[in-house]
Amino acid sequence: MTVNRIEYKDFRNIALLTMEPSDGVNIVYGENAQGKTNLLEGIWLFSGMRSFRGAKDAELIRFGSEFGRLKMSFEAGGREQKAEITVSVKRKAKLNGVELPSCAGLIGKCSAVVFSPSFLSIVKNGPEERRKFLDAAVCQIKPAYANLLAEYNRLLKQRNSLLKDIPIEPSLLDMLDVIDERMTDAGERLVTERKSYIEELLPSVRRIYDGFSGGSEEMDVCYVEKEAENGPIAERLKANRKQDIINKTTSVGPHRDDVDIKINGISARSFGSQGQQRSCAIALKMGEAEVMKNFTGEQPVVLLDDVMSELDANRQDFILNHIIDRQVFITCCEPSTVLRLCAGKTFHIEKGNLIQ
Question: What pTM, to 2 d.p., does this model score?
Answer without folding.
Answer: 0.89
